[in-house]
Each structure stands twice: as structure tokens, then as C-alpha cells.
Specification:
GO terms for molecular function: coenzyme A diphosphatase activity. It comes from Rhodotorula toruloides. This is NUDIX hydrolase domain-like protein. This protein starts with 20 loop residues before the first helix and ends with a helix. The chain has helices at about 20-30, 40-50, 115-125, 235-250, 265-275, 280-295, and strands at about 65-75, 80-90, 100, 105, 135-140, 145, 150-160, 175-180, 210-215, 220-230, 235. The protein has a single domain, classed as Nucleoside Triphosphate Pyrophosphohydrolase (Alpha-Beta Complex), CATH 3.90.79. Helix 2 (about 40-50) crosses helix 4 (about 235-250). Strand 1 and strand 2 (about 80-90) form a beta hairpin. It is built from six helices and eleven strands.
């Protein structure tokens, strides 16, 4: 038995993420998940925790310089873990070629909200259908500030239909893979989350599974950048930071490592500080000016 069809995407955040415990259990037992073992109680609880999370109101009404990424979760074959879908950016891209990323991109005028942005970009990049029944909305996180001054909103969804087949857009994505969500809370690859060795244990002389670097940002205050060893490429920077926070919400625990640098600003304070910078507003002015040209050239 499957749950009733959820309401379509709406501009009201109060109507999003209305995923009840009954719907969750119905979905977990539905025929669409027959390709895997039943989700473990731990995985079901993690999904429920995410669905119950209500993000604070978005205080940034401007559409310029906004983007969204889709944190697309699904059960592992054993049902023990929740995995997240990740892609490797094409080497031909102008920004961050070859890096691991979450599907996503800039908000368009036609997007009714940031959930729509994340879903549209995921469809364009990896062929995930814009379907609120087969790919259920769970929650959104407050925005993160990228070094480019872009505000990036993570949108978390759960895949119910395991018959979906990704179709990569080679101009944007060169590879697609998955990784255990809970692995972003551990500094040790032998941690219990790896029921099947993934990644392989770190050998002597090899790169550690989890590393950090603290870089100065505003006012000389440092910001911590995390990196996790993965195949085919490490998961680093903003992508890693977003997934740490999603995992913390899902599993209701802190990571096994220090999340922040000493005296590091919160994301909310970081964005407030960035809004005092001319570069922050210049970025948005240039975006407004080039948008009509990009629309004419079919790039939006």
C-alpha cells in the first residue's frame, strides 16, 4: 500500500515537508522499494528526523545569486544505510571541473521556489524526474554561503522508486555515485556505518579518510573546510559541509571531529557579514545584467 499522492510544490513553505509517520511507513513498505531489503529502523528514524525538521524563515528575499542543491537520499541494498547521490562535474565546466558535487544550480525566474530549482537542475544534470511522488520532499536547510558569494540552499529528498534510471548530461556531469550519509559524521573509515567496506580502510602512507583545513575569510576569522576520501574523487568544501549538516539532522548527533575552526562564524553570521561587502552586491548586480543575455542564448 502506498501513501496518497503528496501535494505539488508550492510557494508556501508551511505546506512543504508534510510527511507523516503513517505515510513514511506506507512508503517504506510500498512495492516501489521492492528492489531492496526493508529499510532499517535506524534509516526510517533518520528520514523521519529530516521530515520533522522545519527550517527557519528565509530572510533573503532577493532571487539574484541564489542557488539550490538536491540532497537525494535512498536506501542501500541491505536497507542498513541511507546513501546520498553525488556527481563528478565535467572537466569542461568553467567552475570546479572534476570536483564532486550535489546536483543543483542557480535559481531561474521560472522556478516557483528553491525546491523547484533543485529538482529542475537535478533533471537537467542527471535525469532525475521532477516527480514529487517518486522523489519525496523531506526538508530544506538554511542557505550556505559559497566563496563566490552565492547563497546555496540544500533541498533534501528521498527516492521511493528504485526503477529510476539516471541519464547523465555529459556536458555537466562525468560520473554518478553514492556514499553513506552517516559517513559524514565519522573521522574513521572503520566506523560502524560501513557495514560493507566503503571506502576501504586507510593504509599506512595513504591519505586519511577525513581531513580539514582552516582558511581565513572575513575579518581574518577562519572557516573550516572538510574533505572526505571517496572514489572517484574526494568530497570536499561546501558539498562536504552541507552533507555533514544533513547527517547531523538525520542522525541527531554531532560528528566525531571538530566541526568548526576556533572562533568560526555560523553560516547565518557569515551571510550577514558578507552582505556588508561590495562584492556581495556587485555579484548580484552583474547577475541581473547578464540574465537577459543568458536567456537569449538559451543558457537559462
Amino acid at each position: 500500500m502506498s501513501s496518497p499522492r503528496p501535494a505539488p510544490m508550492t510557494t508556501s513553505t508551511d505546506e512543504l515537508g508534510a510527511y507523516s509517520e503513517g505515510e513514511l511507513l506506507d512508503d517504506a513498505m510500498s512495492e516501489s522499494l521492492s528492489a531492496i531489503e526493508p529499510l532499517s529502523p535506524k534509516s526510517l528514524k533518520a528520514i523521519s528526523n529530516l521530515a520533522r525538521y522545519k527550517p527557519p524563515p528565509d530572510p533573503y528575499p532577493f532571487p539574484e545569486g541564489r542557488s539550490a542543491v538536491l540532497v537525494c537520499l535512498f536506501g542501500s541494498r541491505s536497507g542498513d544505510n541511507l546513501n546520498v547521490l553525488l556527481s563528478t562535474r565535467s572537466q569542461t565546466l568553467r567552475t570546479y571541473p572534476g570536483q564532486v558535487a550535489l546536483p543543483g544550480g542557480k535559481m531561474d525566474d521560472t522556478d516557483i521556489n528553491l525546491e523547484a530549482t533543485a529538482r529542475r537542475e537535478a533533471f537537467e544534470e542527471v535525469g532525475l524526474p521532477i516527480d514529487t511522488t517518486r522523489i519525496r520532499y523531506l526538508t530544506s536547510l538554511p542557505p550556505f554561503l559559497a566563496r563566490s558569494m552565492m547563497l546555496v540552499t540544500p533541498v533534501v529528498c528521498f527516492v521511493l522508486d528504485y526503477s529510476l534510471k539516471p541519464e547523465l548530461n555529459p556536458s555537466e556531469v562525468s560520473d554518478l555515485f553514492s556514499f553513506p550519509l552517516e559517513a559524514f559524521l565519522t573521522a574513521n573509515p572503520s566506523h560502524r556505518v560501513f557495514h560493507h567496506p566503503h571506502p576501504e580502510p586507510v593504509l599506512e602512507g595513504k591519505t586519511p579518510y577525513h581531513t580539514v583545513e582552516d582558511y581565513p575569510w572575513f575579518d581574518g576569522r577562519k572557516h573550516r573546510f572538510h574533505a572526505f576520501e571517496a572514489h572517484p574523487q574526494p568530497i570536499v568544501g561546501l558539498t562536504a559541509e552541507i552533507l555533514i549538516h544533513v547527517a547531523m539532522l538525520a542522525y541527531k548527533r554531532s560528528p566525531d571531529f571538530l566541526l568548526r575552526a576556533p572562533d568560526e562564524m555560523s553560516q547565518r553570521d557569515l551571510i550577514r557579514r558578507a552582505m556588508k561587502e561590495p562584492k556581495f552586491h556587485e555579484f548580484r548586480r552583474k547577475w541581473r545584467e547578464k540574465r537577459p543575455v543568458m536567456e537569449r542564448e538559451g543558457k537559462l
